[in-house]
Amino acid sequence: MSNPYQPIKAEIKKVIVETPQIKTFVLEPEKGLPFLSGQFMQVTVPGVGECPFTPSSDPKNSETIEFTVMKTGQATGAMHELKPGEMVGLRGPFGRPYPLPDFHGKDIYIIGGGVGIAPLRALLLALFHELDQLNKIELRLGARSPDDLPFKKEMADWGKREKTSLVLTVDRGSESWTGKVGVVTGIMQPGDVKPDLAVAIVCGPPVMMKFATKKLLDLGIGDKNIYLSMEKNMSCGIGKCFHCNLGSHLCCKDGPVFTWEQVKEIPDPW
Ligand SMILES: Cc1cc2nc3c(=O)[nH]c(=O)nc-3n(C[C@H](O)[C@H](O)[C@H](O)COP(=O)(O)OP(=O)(O)OC[C@H]3O[C@@H](n4cnc5c(N)ncnc54)[C@H](O)[C@@H]3O)c2cc1C
Ligand code: FES
Fold it and tell me: What is the strand order of the sheet 257-259 is part of?
């Protein structure tokens, strides 16, 4: 049996600057690392430490794997300094993915903010392979400013896909910004999806997740049909160290994808 603490090597093939704080790292692992959207991996930045990240790339792409990383502190700051040709370590994938087969026949309501759009990109690319099984995809994405939106070039194409519509908002606009201005809950409207036929998926900063969940409940989406990507500090990634507890759950093993029904009794789960 392979050692779950032993990272495998991955070469950085390309670094894409998404925003002043966010970069996408295109990695080529020394062996295939199949994952499902929603699962995470522990990424070792040599000499600095390990961080959990959720891949942002198409899970069907077996040759390279992408992570979209916001610079927030020591390890992510060091990762932002890495260049093509340098190596990182990868452990995983860990945790529960989005249950894609349960999404068939549904209206898919995807709500994302800031770097939270990264894991949602992997989900979206996976859903695009199954569009014929879905009613529709409604994307509602936001960031602090137009400059803070990752995947800007790609996003225009997402909204043009069959059965897919996209609304973007930013907290502060700019002269060239033609989208909406305001928080993401402001672009979630009754009628976007049919509440009894919808699944909603939310990923973003804790405060956004909290208010987006409240809005989804107000729109009539059921507790079981709201999927949240929860982020807790992690260490082992495999359910051994108890660093990542969320009520009686372990975020690394029972999550990071939870339904609102699973976490709603936890005081301030954000
Ligand atoms: C399952 C999961 C998936 C994630 N996916 C992504 C992703 O795709 N892209 C991305 O940019 N970030 C992601 N994160 C958050 C990322 O792991 C943290 O930003 C990173 O670990 C911070 O490390 P640091 O040393 O740079 O920051 P630090 O200096 O340690 O801290 C800076 C900030 O990050 C928070 N933080 C520190 N360690 C963690 C941790 N292990 N988990 C969560 N928050 C932490 C701290 O509370 C603090 O607010 C994910 C976190 C989890 C748990
Ligand atoms: S990270 Fe160790 S138990 Fe979850």
Answer: 180-181, 164-170, 136-143, 107-113, 198-203, 226-229, 257-259
